[in-house]
């Protein structure tokens, strides 16, 4: 029994020791018994006292708040030091206490209060009531912050993103709190907005594709195409940051909270009057706003633009980039060719405001007119000659020369040569002009043999004597009479009996305008004369000899 009582007593004694003697490395309660030399002396019980620097009782940026008699929690690092005092820390006690509180908040996804007190690489340090956390630069605000000075030392809420007690790491975010409150604010503002509402907003930001407009806590996007009915190259042309503008709510996406805005929707649509204002084939002055590979856009009035297709730009410049014909901001005259109200498209023509140069040429240069021009191009089938009105005419090989083959005649011409030609045909529809160089000065052959037909008797001049016959000339046209055609009498068929310069009467046996030659014969003339004499005199003088008949015919001629 006595043994049992001893054991009980020992257990109670041990228990009292454990209760009274605080364990090193734990948080204990103590009482401030004195403040001296910037330190607080704290009694932690069991005849143990320790000292704590006053600054450990201060919040960042504030004065210490501690007085004699205050009960405080401190961390017992060691029961006794060399001076026989307990080694205690208020800061470490706060940290332990803070970690317990923060772990609970992290588990509950609750906000915690803290104050930014320092700047470190990549962000800031935050005091969360005893525990120090890291606030990354990207988590300070919704948009990048250039100067965090005004935020320093302010008590404000944070969200814990990550924590690791073993390593002593805590990462917090201020941005998550702001986004949450913004989302609530957005939801409230969006709840009051309806599609079609006209509201006032402030231009916050301008980009290439539009502007962000603050509608009082919520931003909407005003796209560049919804700013005006006319073409806007960059939003800065009509808006500036900080400007208050009236906009219409075009669309609200309830899920993403995105709001689309428009300015032009509050103005009258110029397209409502286009058809009445711009009848087909009417001519108007417009301004070139944009040039592309396929044509040029021309503004007829703000908000109404038409396209001049490259094919409608010039009568003569076919394969040229539109930028070589017109330039941006140039004033031009255009004709309305087509209007498509549904697609909001106007087709315009530039060349239609000028007369078709082929029509003009046909009027001013009827067939047979002589023209002069520069050889622009030489091809295997002829020459292209530049004419007035910036158009070309073509001289076919066959129209180069009367005397030479076309292939030979074309060798005489070079690019840049000035040539004279006669208009032989103008086809306005096919935009084709045919010219003839050989027709300049008329057709010498046709002029020379104008009244000459087969069977005609003409007088020619001998120009050369050859073995095979004689060369003669008639009105400047050369011909050759073969030996066999020099006389009906074989003995007289000798070329040498003629002399250069002799005049001889001959009969025309052929007029070949293709080869441009006359077929001539003395023999044929003699036979024809004899035949005629026999017909005239043979019947009445039936017994007369041929000599008598010819003699009588000659006497009559004389």
Automatic annotation (TrEMBL):
The keyword Transmembrane does not apply. The keyword Ubl conjugation does not apply. InterPro entries: NA-bd_OB-fold, Ribos_protein_bS1-like, Ribosomal_bS1, Ribosomal_protein_S1-like, S1_domain. One of its GO terms (biological process) is translation. GO terms for cellular component: cytosolic small ribosomal subunit. Keywords: Repeat, Ribonucleoprotein, Ribosomal protein, RNA-binding. It comes from the Bacteria. One of its GO terms (molecular function) is mRNA binding. SMART domains: S1. SUPFAM superfamilies: Nucleic acid-binding proteins. Residues 25-91, 109-175, 196-264, 281-351, 368-438, 455-523 form the S1 motif domain. NCBIfam families: PRK06299.1-2 (NF004952), PRK06299.1-5 (NF004955), rpsA (TIGR00717). Belongs to the bacterial ribosomal protein bS1 family. Binds mRNA; thus facilitating recognition of the initiation point. It is needed to translate mRNA with a short Shine-Dalgarno (SD) purine-rich sequence. This is 30S ribosomal protein S1. It comes from Pseudaestuariivita atlantica.
